[in-house]
Amino acid sequence: MSACRVKSPNKIRSLIKVTSLGAAVFSAFSVYRGDEKFYNTVFMPIVRLIPPETAHDLAVLGVKWKLFRPSYQDTDRLRTRLLGMTFSNPIGIAAGFDKHGEAVQGLQLIGFGFVEIGSVTPEPQPGNPRPRIFRLNEDKAIVNRYGFNSEGHGAVYDRLRESREQQPREQRVTLGINLGKNKLSSDAIADYVQGVKRFGCLADYLVINVSSPNTPGLRTMQSKSTLQTLLSEVLKARATLPTSEQRPILLKLAPDLSEEDLKEIVSVLRTEACAVDGLIVSNTTIDRPSTLRSNNAGQLGGLSGPPLKQRSTAMIAKVYKLTEGKVPIIGVGGIFTGEDAFEKIEAGASAVQLYTSFIFHGPPVVPKIKRELDRLLEQNGYASVEDAVGKGVDKYLS
Length: 398
Known about the structure:
The chain is an alpha/beta fold. The protein folds into 2 domains: about 10-50, no CATH class; about 50-395, Aldolase class I (TIM Barrel, Alpha-Beta Barrel). The protein has helices at about 10-35, 35-45, 50-65, 105-110, 150-165, 190-200, 225-240, 260-270, 305-320, 340-345, 355-360, 365-380, 385-390, 395, and strands at about 80, 85, 90-95, 115-120, 135, 140-145, 175-180, 205-210, 250-255, 280, 300-305, 330, 350-355. An 8-stranded parallel beta barrel has the order 3-4-7-8-9-10-12-13, surrounded by 6 helices. β7, α6 (about 190-200) and β8 (about 205-210) form a beta-alpha-beta unit. It is globular and about 80 Å long. It comes from Anopheles dirus.
């Protein structure tokens, strides 16, 4: 009886090398092309083993290097007009992912219809001490207390100017710049005025963010008297710029505002001196629903993801009703599917933004949501996103 042949160590090593190389090539291609199954079953579970802020920094770096390019062609039904601009689709990335304007072109390649960067503060500041971002894996949610960590106006301005100059104007993605105030600022209103003047020539729209829960005293700027002064000064500052640099200005609201707070804010917006061009509804919440299961639920900071979804959708409907649909709304909060986006649009949002779903599912979530949204628009007889805006407002108010 002949003895079994045993492969030599060299052949085994060669086989391992070839197999490893093949696996690496397959993985790299799956990541690049945005294979949804590969991301959900292999790539993202590995990412979740990395500390959250490290994973975030690596994700921004990967997008900056344009390593992710999911394949999807936007349909005519997804094209929409907002703030006097045409978006190829109504799905944007919310502020908080690309804080320093490093990855705008890469986010465009992933398929976002518009990109919002920031928040950006006048002077550089480190933000709150680490750890300051926490995954709630059981809830697919995130708690963050970054505290406006920013490289400052100067560094972000230079980076964005260089990035924008690399592309012809007609090929650039719509860019929003979210403005914040420095933690130790002695004049918060002056911080926002400075941002409007600095970035008017680069942004397509600007956001006044007074709703982050992670900067002491910031949310008090949503009170009626302070908000009146803030918005009137910001709009005056815009009026001093050349006409070509007078960008739409939006106000970002907190989801924890009471009905009375909302009514007061809308009354401010109705005055000519404070009439901003749109609203972003909403920021993260300091509330902790009893349904949360994660051990990190008690961490201080703003909660985002599915636990915020219904609250933000109801708030969109309330604001849409209070403003009689005359103030454009960008909806944010817990959008993981096309149905989530569709609900916010029917509640009154003209466009929506993602953050937490992008963190949990990676780039493939963008074409997935667009496909599902397109199908829902068609099934419900809407020829465009604009046709669907506010059509279900009463349903979401209840």
